[in-house]
């Protein structure tokens, strides 16, 4: 199960005892507080705390102006302007703290985003649970023949069964040895900080991850993209659903300008102008490499 009994009891207690506050709240985010959203086979995300809302973004942008200069329609327009022109500082006024349970190999990708505060479950002090990420059959894919860091078609039949058996048996064997090494029954036992090195990268870890909205959008732009690895993308997708309820104006602008938009180089803009003028532009006359041209065609064709 994604949540331990103790974690579920803590959540139930917190939700049963709401506290009054004078700070600004987001009604959409309040519905997510202390609720776990399941991800993969044993993982989850849950919101521990947050600060700010759409109003906090526009308030920061209008720091020199009074409240009389704003309206709901102006707020949405201002947020879209800020997003469109890459004015990032106002989005830093909002923060979110998440509790995430995820496989170690996903955590190692995630931690490359060095713009957050992180505190991870420590296997130096505690014993990790026997929980491993085992992909569903449709996510057991072969290596892509055109992308060194991507997947090809899903494995089928006996090949898929063989790989699944390896993943399950190797994970459990490693954990059995982990337990035996730290056992205190009639033996001294290996230190936990050393015994953990025998564990596979698909074992689950947990952390608290706190980040501002600007850097969260950067994370989501990369990790919720269709080209991102599936196992981290599903976490990003789950976070997107939370952010959409938290800051609806900001998320809509992010979805439009970042997720749904495209950046064009000077050469690409020049080619687009020539095409609009009726010229038949080819890769050879574009001044772009084959890779650049292929990406450009993917945008404009």
Automatic annotation (TrEMBL):
The gene is thyX. The lineage of its organism: Bacteria, Pseudomonadati, Pseudomonadota, Alphaproteobacteria, Rhodobacterales. FAD binds at residues 89, 112-114, 120, 212-214, 218. Keywords: FAD, Flavoprotein, Methyltransferase, NADP, Nucleotide biosynthesis, Transferase. Its cofactor is FAD. Its EC number is 2.1.1.148. The active site is at 223 (involved in ionization of n3 of dump, leading to its activation). PANTHER family: FLAVIN-DEPENDENT THYMIDYLATE SYNTHASE (PTHR34934:SF1). It comes from Parasulfitobacter algicola. Catalyzes the reductive methylation of 2'-deoxyuridine-5'-monophosphate (dUMP) to 2'-deoxythymidine-5'-monophosphate (dTMP) while utilizing 5,10-methylenetetrahydrofolate (mTHF) as the methyl donor, and NADPH and FADH(2) as the reductant. Belongs to the thymidylate synthase ThyX family. GO terms for molecular function: thymidylate synthase (FAD) activity. Pathway: Pyrimidine metabolism; dTTP biosynthesis. PROSITE patterns: THYX (PS51331). It is an enzyme of class 2 (transferase). Homotetramer. Signal peptide: none annotated. The keyword Transferase applies. Pfam families: Thy1. One of its GO terms (biological process) is methylation. It catalyses: dUMP + (6R)-5,10-methylene-5,6,7,8-tetrahydrofolate + NADPH + H(+) = dTMP + (6S)-5,6,7,8-tetrahydrofolate + NADP(+). This is Flavin-dependent thymidylate synthase. It comes from the Bacteria. DUMP binds at residues 109-112, 120-124, 196, 223.
């Amino acid at each position: 199960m994604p949540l331990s009994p103790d974690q579920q009891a803590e959540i139930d207690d917190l939700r049963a005892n709401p506290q009054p506050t004078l700070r600004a709240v987001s009604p959409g985010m309040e519905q997510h507080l202390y609720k776990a959203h399941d991800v993969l086979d044993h993982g989850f995300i849950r919101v521990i705390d947050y600060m700010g809302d759409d109003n906090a973004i526009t308030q920061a942008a209008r720091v020199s102006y009074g409240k009389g200069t704003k309206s709901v329609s102006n707020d949405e327009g201002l947020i879209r302007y800020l997003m469109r022109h890459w004015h990032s500082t106002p989005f830093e006024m909002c923060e979110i703290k998440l509790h995430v349970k995820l496989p170690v190999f996903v955590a190692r990708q995630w931690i490359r985003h060095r713009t957050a505060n992180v505190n991870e479950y420590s296997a130096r002090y505690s014993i990790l649970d026997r929980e491993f990420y085992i992909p569903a059959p449709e996510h057991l894919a072969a290596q892509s023949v055109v992308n060194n860091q991507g997947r090809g078609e899903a494995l089928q039949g006996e090949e898929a069964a063989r790989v699944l058996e390896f993943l399950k048996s190797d994970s459990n064997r490693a954990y059995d040895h982990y337990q035996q090494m730290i056992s205190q029954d009639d033996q001294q036992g290996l230190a936990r900080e050393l015994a953990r090195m025998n564990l596979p990268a698909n074992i689950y870890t947990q952390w608290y991850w706190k980040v501002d909205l600007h850097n969260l959008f950067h994370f989501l732009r990369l990790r919720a993209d269709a080209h991102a690895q599936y196992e981290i993308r599903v976490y990003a997708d789950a976070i997107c659903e939370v952010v959409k309820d938290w800051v609806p104006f900001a998320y809509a602008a992010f979805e439009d300008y970042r997720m749904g938009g495209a950046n064009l180089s000077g050469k690409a803009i020049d080619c687009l102008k020539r095409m609009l003028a009726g010229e038949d532009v080819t890769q050879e006359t574009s001044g772009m490499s084959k890779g650049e041209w292929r990406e450009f065609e993917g945008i404009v064709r």
